[in-house]
Amino acid sequence: MTAAMRLGLKIAAAFVYSAALGYLVAGLFWQTFNPWLPPSAVVAIGAVLGIRVATLFASMTAAAVLNWKSIWIGGGAGVSVLLADWPATLGRHTDPPPALLMPVLVATMVVVATAGRLRARKSSHFYNSARFARSLHHLQGFLLFGAALPASLAWEWTRPYVVGVILSAFLLWELWDGACPVTLSENEARLREGLPVMPPGGGFIPDVLARFGIAVTGHTVALVFYGIGFSLCGWFGINWMF
Q1: Mean pLDDT to the nearest integer, 176-205
Q2: Helix, coil or strand: residue 37
Q3: In the chain, which end has fewer C-beta atoms inside a 10 angstrom radius, N or C?
Q4: Where are the domains of the chain?
Q5: Who has greater pLDDT, 77 or 186?
């Protein structure tokens, strides 16, 4: 595979992963709060949350760094699309309205295209720190295993996006040479702060488990995730066909 093909695949996988994850956040916020809050408020809050999640993970998966200049530009583009395409009417539909999708797609596209090119000043602010990057690891785990995967068992609209997240995550893992790009983003912050980095072949989950005296390798974690991911995708496929 040529370097250009590898870069193109990495950008495409980062876009799919981040946009799908962001839309799941926006859509699940709609699904949860639409019965209780005004629909316009649910769309506005859900879209902003989805845009923020998508832009954060777009920067990390595309460039393995938190580029806040790119993140803010992408977020602004997404909010602009939301306001420009604000739906004339909003009802209490079960599935998320289409107005939630395009702002997330545009915001993600902008960040994926610029995160590796724009130069952003690194400050000592918490949002540039290794602690913040570590918190995004926790957020990612909650969104995937605490929200999106359980929701996909009940709500069919989530399933194409969950499949997109799973398959693009596996592809990103391969394209980043077996490393999680969120881990690489945290390591970049740790290097700046003079902290020890997570070693190659390790990662967030082995690092957390090691604190409890449980030794596992990144390869073992990857195999478990492959098993869960492909089993879930297979179950979706069987349900779709029959």
Answers
A1: 80
A2: coil
A3: C
A4: 3-241
A5: 77
Q: Find where tokens 């068992």 sit.
A: 153
- Cβ neighbors of 1 (< 8 A, separation 6 or more) are 9
* 140-164 exposure pattern, b = at least 16 Cβ within 10 A, e = fewer: beebbeebbbebbeeeeebbebbbb
- Token representation of residue 85: 């395409």
Amino acid at 209: L
Nearest Cα neighbor of 10 from 183, 174, 160 is 174
Residue 99 CA neighbour count, 13 Å, CB half: 25
Question: Residues 142, 109, 145, CA angle at the centre, nearest 5°?
Answer: 10
Tokens of 182: 């969120």
Q: Range with the lowest mean pLDDT among 41-50, 54-63, 119-128, 151-160?
A: 119-128
Q: Give helix 68-84 / helix 39-63 axis angle, nearest 10°.
A: 150
The answer to whether the Cα torsion of 83, 119, 112, 66 is positive or negative is negative
What's the pLDDT at 210?
Answer: 58
In this prediction, residue 45 carries a pLDDT of: 95
Contact 25, 55 (CB under 8 A): no
DSSP string, 116-156: TTS-----SSGGGSHHHHHHHHHHHHIIIIIIIHHHHTT-G
For the segment 96-125, the average pLDDT, to the nearest whole number, is 88
CB under 8 A, 24+ apart: contacts of 203-208? 203/179, 204/134, 204/137, 204/180
